[in-house]
């Protein structure tokens, strides 16, 4: 699918299967989400620009490649995005962080925005937005709208599961933003849940249901 990268690494798929299993405990689900996010982070950052740093090895001086971590922003769509965020920060501790509070109204499936805090000068940074679920796409689209309103123009979206309906809507609204996901699932059910899916990611992470 155009603009969508499916991260089908065996370790990712193995962990995802355990997360989908309804018998998996809250503690295990949270740990797996953190583990899987480091693997997904590896792929979503694959093409990042490097600069060089002059260092001395025990033998010689050299210009060695280094990431400009401060130029990177990880933006978590609350709440469930925080599960991905933690593993990403394990790998890139110097990244800056944005929090975007959005939940979807269970009746209308429309996004309700309640919080936004991001580093300044988003225009000069790569923003990687994380949320485990892309269902209707409404929450992610709202988050991207907010980031663009504040100047962000170089954005990527990382999720764990995506529904075809959400991908289509997201790509129509934000064709410039590539999507990275571990799976494109079958469809959305009448309540807007991804099938086969893994249920409500936030509730499974935090044990709120
Ligand atoms: O693509 P959509 O149809 O908008 O659905 C996806 C959104 O739903 C979930 O969040 P939820 O609204 O359950 O909030 P929570 O993370 O606070 O539980 C998920 O983490 C996404 O943000
Ligand atoms: O299946 C879904 C859809 C939206 N949000 C979730 O957490 N799960
Ligand atoms: Mg949410």
From TrEMBL:
Enzyme Commission number(s): 2.4.2.9
Binding residues for uracil: 194, 199-201
InterPro entries named in the record: PRTase-like, PRTase_dom, Upp_B, UPRT, UPRTase/APRTase
Cofactor(s) listed in the protein's UniProt record: Mg(2+)
A molecular function GO annotation: magnesium ion binding
Entry keyword set: Allosteric enzyme, Glycosyltransferase, GTP-binding, Magnesium, Nucleotide-binding, Transferase
Domain Phosphoribosyltransferase: 6-208
Activity control summary: Allosterically activated by GTP.
Single biological process term from Gene Ontology: UMP salvage
Catalytic activity: UMP + diphosphate = 5-phospho-alpha-D-ribose 1-diphosphate + uracil
CDD domains in the cross-refs: PRTases_typeI
Biological pathway: Pyrimidine metabolism; UMP biosynthesis via salvage pathway; UMP from uracil: step 1/1
Record note on cofactor: Binds 1 Mg(2+) ion per subunit. The magnesium is bound as Mg-PRPP.
Residue sites binding 5-phospho-alpha-D-ribose 1-diphosphate per the record: 79, 104, 131-139, 200
Pfam families attached to this UniProt entry: UPRTase
Gene Ontology cellular-component terms listed: cytoplasm
Enzyme class: transferase
The family this protein is said to belong to: Belongs to the UPRTase family.
Function of the protein: Catalyzes the conversion of uracil and 5-phospho-alpha-D-ribose 1-diphosphate (PRPP) to UMP and diphosphate.
Family annotation (HAMAP family): Upp_B
Name this polypeptide is given: Uracil phosphoribosyltransferase
Gene: upp
